[in-house]
Amino acid sequence: MHVLLITPSWSVHSHRFIRMLLEKGCRVTLLDTANPLDSSPDGFRFVRYVPVRGLRFLGKRLGKYFELAFRIAQLRYIWYRFRPDLVNVQWVDDRAWFCAKANLRPLVLSCWGSDINNVFWDEYENVLDPDRLRHALSKANYITADSLEVLDRCELLVGRKLVTNLYFFGIDTQQFARPYDKEAKALREKLGIPMNCRVILSSRRLHPMMGQFHILQAFAQAISDPNMPEAVLVFKKYLSISPEFEKELALRVQELGVAHKVYWLEESSYAEVPIQYAMADIVVNYPEQDAFPVSLFEATASKRAVISANLPAYEGLFDDAILTVPPGQPVSLSRAIKSCLVEEPQQRKARVEKAFVKSTNLGDQKKNRDQLLEAFECLISREKAAGLASDPT
Q1: Closest by alpha carbon to 298, among 140, 198, 151, 173?
Q2: Angle, helix 94-101 to helix 60-82, in steps of 10 degrees
């Protein structure tokens, strides 16, 4: 199978997906602004997504018309030159719209969550053009997402049923299940965290939607109780949405008087992520809206106690194997943190073991990849049988 893949090269999800396709013997032609791979393995080709310059000089209307014409010509040229079996756009943005306008088939759109959810979130600015998004979704042959809520929202945008299915990126569960005691101790020492402190890890990147202000407030309330064990809070500073948001959060840390209890993880490789979980006693996932994050698979595969917002996107997946509280309610979150800090070891062990089983069943990346490729094969066969995949014009 030859896949024309259009995906954000900066994302670790893209890196892992490319590697998984190549491991399965697929050929991959990646179209993006930068090549994420240090080498060119067999079966892999990188094509640069050429920027369109000078559009502002043409005016808004003419500029949009020229950009669309250029992108259609570019995409059809790439399609004719390399003859992929299937086009997969991951993260549904204008490039998905361009592919739909170029009539590239079969077209698979893989929603990552916020690409769709942001259209429904009033507080988020600079959302994708809903009309372009709607058109791209309506022309796709197959749509995947890691949340039924996101798939429902795709159909709500288009106004009809679509061919959709759940797909989890998943993780290498064995990688996260391995013990990292020495590495975790070294990371704790590097950060300067005292050995007698419990570690609460905020698992998501810094972003207003990810609830870090609520997590911070809940943590400050929890540790103000003199009956609680010594605890610290760790934020992931890397991949934050902006320096301004970092400054706002750091200022709030100072205002709450907990700067001596808050630590920051700087940029690191994906290989260090299992060590970060191994260092933690409690992992907090508290967004206001979401698809299904791989971080929940990572935390549960690492056998960490997890506290999460009980969002519709997570419904029915982990049930009572993780502690859940309503989003946007730091008082409730604080109670959950305190409960988790003082619960009996056997009670915690039973819950994390149950979550671990669910994680390995749902989140195995190779199992999910194989199911997706099976769907790709069926789609390609149907398109060929119908004679629709031979000419995008």
Answers
A1: 173
A2: 70
pTM: 0.87
- Is 392 a member of any domain? no
C-alpha 15/C-alpha 30 separation (Å) is 11
Q: Are residues 149 and 71 in the same domain?
A: yes
Is pLDDT of 52 > 90? no
**pLDDT of 270 higher than 80:** yes
- Structural domain boundaries, residue 257: 173-362
Residue 344's CATH number = 3.40.50.2000
Residue 229 structure tokens? 């064990």
Angstrom distance (rounded) from CA 286 to CA 310: 9
pLDDT band at 309; cut points 50, 70, 90: very high
Structure tokens at 13: 């999800």
The predicted model gives 286-308 an average pLDDT of 94
- My answer on whether 338 and 369 are in the same domain is no
| Strand, helix or coil for residue 312 | helix
- Paired sense of beta strands 305-309 and 282-285, if any: parallel
